[in-house]
Design goal:
Elements (H helix, E strand, L loop, with lengths): L3 E2 L5 E2 L8 E6 L13 E5 L2 E7 L1 H9 L6 E2 L8 E6 L6 H15 L3 E16 L16 E4 L3 E3 L2 E7 L1 H8 L9 E3 L7 E6 L1 H7 L2 H12 L1 E17 L7
Parallel strand pairs: 6-14, 8-12
Antiparallel strand pairs: 1-8, 2-8, 3-7, 4-5, 4-9, 5-7, 8-14, 10-11, 11-13
Helix pairs in contact: 1-2
């Protein structure tokens, strides 16, 4: 069977803990403008701030999934800035449950889960190990962006785990498949790939792979793997604040 339904019917998000206050507005950055394709998510124990996010971005964060494991066949137009707060400090997993509740109440989102076999690239360390140095800076605010920043002739992936690096790298022109971390390497890194912006502009997959291997000691192998995917069946534009 090509696909296996894990729920017998479309389901809404489960009711759960709620934010004390939440604001949802059209994104300040329009798609197509400089930075229009970049989303940013920040969280503290008492707040969640999401900038220029789609509904799929929200589902991805709420369920702790890589982007390729969220399917949105009928996406809502535009993107959103979401600012949500809770009076008491809560752990990260509770913030995710609060976002699930927000998506159910404000977007009226309904989902189901299914199993899919997907082509991927697996990120592995080359013989001799990687050449990554863990970052030393720490911050009370945890930030995550969807794309690397361009600094000079380099892509900079700031404060990333290797699973997050794989997610960002998969968005580059010339990659266009999920990149799955199989290195077993933990920790956060600042990864700089010199020459990568030029290769991405040309969609030169071979050059991007070579840059990663030469500069990080990691390589990408083509593979296929089964994954559970969340499918967004329906949703509405969010209700007014």
């Amino acid at each position: 069977m090509r696909r296996l339904l894990l729920f017998t019917a479309t389901t809404a998000f489960a009711a759960g803990p709620s934010f004390d206050v939440a604001s949802i507005k059209p994104a300040a950055i329009e798609i197509g403008r400089e930075g229009g394709n970049r989303s940013r998510i920040e969280h503290t124990p008492t707040s969640l701030s999401m900038f220029n996010v789609s509904l799929a971005d929200c589902v991805q964060w709420a369920y702790g999934l890589p982007r390729f494991r969220v399917a949105d066949p009928h996406p809502l137009p535009g993107s959103y800035d979401i600012l949500a707060k809770t009076t008491d400090a809560v752990p990260l997993e509770r913030l995710k449950l609060m976002l699930q509740d927000l998506l159910a109440k404000r977007f009226h989102a309904e989902i189901h889960r299914e199993s899919r076999s997907l082509p991927v690239y697996e990120l592995v360390a080359v013989k001799g190990g990687s050449r990554l140095a863990p970052r030393k800076e720490t911050s009370a605010v945890v930030r995550a962006e969807s794309l690397p920043r361009v600094v000079g002739d380099a892509f900079v992936f700031a404060d990333v785990t290797l699973p997050h690096f794989g997610e960002m790298f998969s968005q580059l022109r010339g990659i266009e498949l999920p990149v799955i971390d199989r290195t077993g390497i933990e920790g956060s890194y600042d990864i700089v790939l010199k020459g990568a912006p030029a290769a991405a502009r040309e969609g030169d997959t071979a050059a991007l792979f070579a840059i990663v291997q030469q500069q990080t000691g990691l390589k990408l192998n083509a593979a296929k793997a089964p994954f559970e995917v969340i499918v967004i069946d329906r949703a509405k534009r969010p209700s007014e604040n």
